[in-house]
Amino acid sequence: MVIGGIDVETLAQQFGTPLYVLSETDFRARARSFREAFEEAFAPETEVDVFYAGKAFLSTHVARWATEEGLCVDTASGGELALALAGGVPPGRIGLHGNNKSDAEIQRALDAGLGRIIADSLDELERISTLAVAAGTRAPVMLRLTPGVHASTHEYIATAHEDQKFGLSLTPAIGSADTDVTQTDPSHTAPASAADGAPAGSNPYLGSPAWTAASRALELPGVELRGLHAHIGSQIFEPAGFELAAQKLIAFLATLRASYGVELPELDLGGGHGIAYTEADTPRHPEAIAQALASTVKQACADHSLAVPRISIEPGRAIVGPAGVTLYRVGVQKDVQVEAPDGSTVARRYVAVDGGMSDNARGVLYDADYSAVLAGRRVTGEHALSRIVGKHCESGDIVVRNVYLPTATARDDLLAVPATGAYCHSLSSNYNYLTRPAVVAVADGVSSVLIRRETEQDMLGRDTGFAAA
After folding, report:
1. What's the per-residue H, E or C state across 5-52?
2. What is the distance between the terminal CA atoms of the chain, rounded to a whole angstrom?
3. What is the pLDDT of residue 176?
4. What is the pLDDT of residues 249-298, one digit of tens each?
5. C-alpha to C-alpha distance for 149 and 144, rounded to whole angstroms
6. Domains of the chain
7. Taking the model in full, what pTM does it have?
8. Considering the chain, what is the average pLDDT of its residues?
9. 393 is annotated as an active-site residue
10. DSSP-assigned states of every residue in 115-142
11. What is the percentage of the chain residues whose pLDDT exceeds 70?
12. Are 249 and 155 in contact (CB under 8 A)?
C-alpha cells in the first residue's frame, strides 16, 4: 500500500506504530470541493462560508491547509481556538462553539476579534453581552437553535432533537405565555402582517427558549445578532433532515422579521455529512449535498419573501475523515468458536494490534464500524473471518468488528484501517498508560510530522512522584 507516494512499511519503520497517516492532497481536495460546490450552488443569490469543523481533527498545519483552500475554521474550545490562531487563521474567519463556554473562552474570542460566537443558551448570551460591554466592543453572535429534527444516526451524535444538551429549542415551554413580546413591550412594534401570510402577532415560537433568546439578543448591549445556526448531528447520509432543519430556521427568520422588522443576514446549516467507513456506507458527493440544500433554502426564502441570507456550513469529518489511515502492527492471534446465525459453530480469529481504543475510541463509544487490510505485503490464499482488537484491558476494545484477513497474516504484519482522519486523534487517550501516536502528513512522496509521538516522559511527567524519581 502506498499513500501520498510513500509505501506504508517505510512510514511504519520511520515513525513507528500505531501511526496516524494523513494525506494532505486528499484533505485539500475535499476542502476545495465543498467550497466550490456550495459557492456554485448558492450563486448568484448569496455567498457561502465553509467552516472546517476543527473538532474532527485540528493541528496548526491543518488549520493552515484549510485557510489556504479558502475555508474558515470552527472551534469548540479555548484550546482549539489557540491552535487555529497559531496556525495563522485570520480571527475574522474563526467561529467559537461550545455548550458551556467559560468567561475566559468568551473573553479570548472577543480579544482576538473572532468572526462569530455561537451562543448556546440564554445564560451564555447574557455573559457575552456583559463581557463585550466591559471590553468596549460588540460581539458577533449566532444563536444555535434546536429544530427538533431526529437525524438517523447514533443517539450520542444526534444533536437536534429536544432531549439533549445543545441549543435553544423552538418548542414553547409548558405553561409559557402565548402573548407576543411585540404586543407587551412598547419598545417593539410589529408590522401590519407577517411575511408568511399569518395574522400580525401570530407566532408559534412564543414562550420557546429560541424566541426568548432571539428577542433578548436584539436588545442586549454589546451583542450584534448575525443569524441562526443549527447542527442536526453527525455521520448522516439522508438529505431530509438537513433540508427540514433549513426550512424551520428560515420560518423562524420570517417570524423575526414579522415581529421586529429585522432580517438577519446569516444562516449556518451545520455539518454532519457521512463518509464511507465500510462498503455498506453510501456518502453523497459535495455537489449533491450543495444542490439539494440550495434548492431547499432558495425555495423556503421565496415562500417567506426573504432574501437568501449568507450561508455557512461546517463539514469536518467529510473533509478529514477519508484523508486519514491508521497503521498497526499485528501481535497475538487466537481462534475462538462462535455461534453462527444458523446455529452452527464457526471459528473467528482474534487479531490483536499494538493500539486500540486509546487511539480510536469510536468503536466503544458509538459501535462504529471500520474495515482493514493487510498493507505491508501482498498475500494470496485463503482468508478467515477476523476481529481486530486492541491491547487494552477491556473486552469492548475492538478496532474492527468483522473483517476477512488472509489466514497467512502473521506477527509484525502491518494492518491499515482507513477513514480514521476524524475523531480518532481528537478522542485519543492514555488509557492503560499507552502513549498517543504521531500524526504524519504525506504528499507527493514527502512525509512530515504534524504531531510528534507522545513519549512516556510527556505522559507521566505530570505525576509528581514520577517527576521526582
Report:
1. CEEHHHHHHHHCCCEEEEEHHHHHHHHHHHHHHHHHHHCCCCCEEEEE
2. 44
3. 52
4. 999 999 999 999 999 999 999 999 999 999 999 999 999 999 999 999 99
5. 14
6. 47-320 (3.20.20.10), 324-420+422-468 (2.40.37.10)
7. 0.90
8. 91
9. yes
10. SEEEE-SHHHHHHHHHHHHHHTS-EEEE
11. 91
12. no
Phi and psi, residue 440, nearest 5°: -120, 130
Tens digits of per-residue pLDDT, 337-364?
888 888 888 889 999 999 999 999 999 9
Tell me how far CA of residue 387 lies from CA of 12, 159, 348, in angstroms.
22, 31, 7
Question: Residues in the chain, how many?
Answer: 469
Q: What's the CA dihedral at 409, 414, 419, 422 to 10 degrees?
A: 130
pLDDT in tens, 67-101: 999 999 999 999 999 999 999 999 999 999 999 99
Cβ-contact 236, 274 below 8 angstroms: yes
- Determine the Cα–Cα distance for residues 432 and 437; give it in Å rounded to an integer: 14
pLDDT in tens, 155-213: 544 444 456 688 999 988 765 544 343 333 333 433 333 333 333 458 999 999 999 99
- Three-state SS across 238-275? CCHHHHHHHHHHHHHHHHHHHHHCCCCCEEECCCCECC
Beta strand 438-443 with 446-451: parallel, antiparallel or unpaired?
antiparallel
Residue 171: φ, ψ to 5°? -85, 125
Which residues are registered as beta bridge partners of 311?
A: 48, 267
Each residue's pLDDT tens digit, 397-428:
999 999 999 999 999 999 999 999 999 999 99
- Grid coordinates given for 193: 402582517
Strands 373-374 and 398-406: unpaired
Cell output for 334: 487466537
Give residue 451's region: left, alpha or beta (phi > 0; psi -120 to 50): beta
Above 70 in pLDDT, residue 375?
yes
The SS3 assignment for 85 reads helix
CA distances from 94 to 118, 151, 352, 419 (A): 11, 27, 41, 26
pLDDT score recorded for residue 187: 39
Is residue 450 a contact partner of residue 441, using CB atoms and an 8 Å limit? yes
Report the distance separating Cα 114 and Cα 94, nearest Å: 6
Q: Is the separation of the CB atoms in 433 and 393 below 8 Å? A: no
User: How far does CA 389 lie from the centroid of its chain?
Assistant: 26
Nearest to 143, CA basis, from 246, 231, 49, 214: 214
pLDDT of residue 161: 46
H/E element holding 352? Answer: strand 345-353
Annotated active-site residue in 72, 301, 393, 424: 393
